[in-house]
């Protein structure tokens, strides 16, 4: 295995964890959103890893009263068609603070190569 591939895999949890902390607003005021209790880092798509591609996906998330994710919708992705599936699969496994159902929580999931 090449150094680049090892570096990419090793960087995913650190890179992904950093992007879960902030929200993005598109001009709409929301009530306080539930805190993320458990954030699953996405797998780096192998095709992107082989091509040394980096990018991000902005997702809109709906959460029920138990803190479970009920819907994930891709708002945008750069580059398009590469990272959406990995980001969506990871976010579907996230867990939020219970007792604060919410819709339209917007988060950015970044995919960065290190090394």
From TrEMBL:
It is found in: Cell inner membrane. Residues 29-115 form the TonB C-terminal domain. The keyword Membrane applies. Gene3D superfamilies: TonB. The keyword Transmembrane applies. Its main location: membrane. GO terms for biological process: protein transport; siderophore transport; transmembrane transport. GO terms for molecular function: energy transducer activity. It holds the Pfam family TonB_C. Residues 1-31 form the signal peptide. Keywords: Cell inner membrane, Cell membrane, Membrane, Protein transport, Repeat, Signal, Signal-anchor, Transmembrane, Transmembrane helix, Transport. It comes from the Bacteria. GO terms for cellular component: outer membrane-bounded periplasmic space; plasma membrane protein complex. It is a single-pass membrane protein. Belongs to the TonB family. Homodimer. Forms a complex with the accessory proteins ExbB and ExbD. Interacts with outer membrane receptor proteins that carry out high-affinity binding and energy dependent uptake into the periplasmic space of specific substrates. It could act to transduce energy from the cytoplasmic membrane to specific energy-requiring processes in the outer membrane, resulting in the release into the periplasm of ligands bound by these outer membrane proteins. This is Protein TonB. It comes from Parvularcula maris.
